[in-house]
Amino acid sequence: MESRSLLALTLFVAVAADLPAQPAAAPESVAEIQNRHDRSLVRELGEYLIRNPKAEDRDQAYAALFNKAIEHDWFAENQEAAERYLKDEPEGPVRSLAQVITVMARAKAKRFPDALARYKELLQGLTMADQEEFAASFSETFATAAVAAGEIDVAAQVYQSLAAKFPDSAALKQKAETELGRFARVGKPAPALEAQDLEGKTVRLGDLRGKFVLVDFWATWCTPNIVELPRLQDAYKKYHGAGLEIVSVSLDDTRTAVVDFVKARKIPWVQLHNTTAGVDCVEAFGVSSIPATYLIDPQGTIIRLDLRGGALEEVLSKLIKAKG
């Protein structure tokens, strides 16, 4: 019996030795691990609520589900749960979170008039004092989605409604005025900017007439900018020959940080450092925070703001093709 077992083991080892080596699985990142666990959590919470619609801890379950959905922008796939909660618990304690889901699901589907109406309902239900921070954060999220889709009027109404809801908040009033000022630049000529790039050469936006120009305000310390960089590089590689120029304006404290970063990442387009450019580009464009981008058409008119992610490719593909 022992000899048979030894023979079987010997044969198994021999066969295994002849098998091709299996490639090692790529290691997950921390973000991927968290994402996978959060998706599992949301799925299990959703199933629990369907099985136990009257559970005593249903508000706790909905709160956890909605918070994770908002954190990851999983709006469309959780819209049904949010609509169900609003129907069953119209005055429930996590009503505002459910409303966020319904507003943003419509915004992501580009149903902006409907989304705006839902947004105004949400604002109306908030109290004056303890919900200001929540309202400001969510309003910025919704307005950002509207701006990326080219719905500038919707974004303007968001900030107008927010300022009207909290008239005693100096911070919200200032934020609304700043954003409305930026929105008003769309459809207007871009500033006649003349600045010195990192190599000391003069850059004039007027000299780029006849091309689409993306003015990108960024910094090496701004994580969203770094995440977006590969998309900018892809866009430049794809559309530069067809008429796209990029002018990046760094808000870093030191010029050296920008020079080193640009050299290490081999970024080919025009680079300005706002502090040493000889002109305040931030003030010229009315920038209040970064990331911020301004797309200028061949006639020198600002036509879009804050194009990032898939929105950048979508818009450029249509505009460059139309020009051709």
TrEMBL record:
Main location: other
Entry keywords, A to Z: Cytochrome c-type biogenesis, Disulfide bond, Redox-active center
Name of protein: TlpA disulfide reductase family protein
Keyword Disulfide bond: yes
Lineage: superkingdom: Bacteria
Cell location: Cell envelope
Record domain Thioredoxin: where: 184-324
